[in-house]
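Intended use. Records like the one below are meant for learning the mapping from a protein sequence to its folded structure. Do not use them to infer anything beyond what is encoded.
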Amino acid sequence: MVSSLKALSKFAAYCALLSFVSAHQNLHEFYVNGVTVGYEKCMRRPPSNNPVTDVQSTDIRCNVNGLSASGTNPVPEVCAVNAGDEITVIWDTSSHPGPIQHFLYGPISDALTADGSGAKWSKIDVLNVQDGKMANVIMMENGGKYTFKLPENLTSGEYLLRSEMLALHGAGVIGGGQFYIGCMQLKITGPGGDCSPKFSLPGIYDASQPEIYIPDVYNGFNTLTYTAPGGPVATCTAGSGSGSTPASTTVSASTTRMTTAASSSITPSSTTATSAAASATSAVVAKYGQCGGAGFTGSTNCASGMSVV
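Structure written out for the chain above:
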């Protein structure tokens, strides 16, 4: 009886979806620890609310025209956050069934110009099903909001934060999965660390994999056991790991520049002070002049025939 009710419930849900085939969506805003950064601030805004369906296209990174912040928003910005902060994304609601997941790209030197190429992406969060409801339903009930936390162990630097909602109502044919993507530009302050595994986009998805191509999506598809594509959520550990080489290269270059600048300004004054001190302590003190004693800081080079008593 319970199984029959579940089947009827799923059938009713999918029938309802057919009346919402135009329910496309975009990411519009995000909050940090409960405080908004502003409407469509610090994000790459796509030209429309249409989905990306070609998983081998570079559009799968940050949506159409999303390879840099230039031209996607009137005032490109980067928002400052901390590792471990709570992030709330606000999407247009959609009744199309599917998961939501989040990815980080970095650390990088400039989030405004980063194009998302290379194996620097890590999956940091996913919601498939909770309490018998797919992620899109949970978000519909919460006004399009979804909250998760950034990893605690992150190296300071700039990052792209990619929010993805995958709509499965068209997944009965190859190329029918609809990816809705929004990328945010962040400057993260963290204690150091690395997330693994890392991968490239495109590269982690295949149009024919069972999480994207579901031939029985309207006839036997069990939403309760569905798992989003893209592999497991990354493990982020303190210190550098084997997967951190590309990110470490970027951060090291910045660190080297800072260290060089600091050394240039500090070394000359230190050398001068040392030379002055050496001169003061090596000068010969005239006969009967003080050249020692408790608390004395002058030259201890007494004239010939004299000594400290």
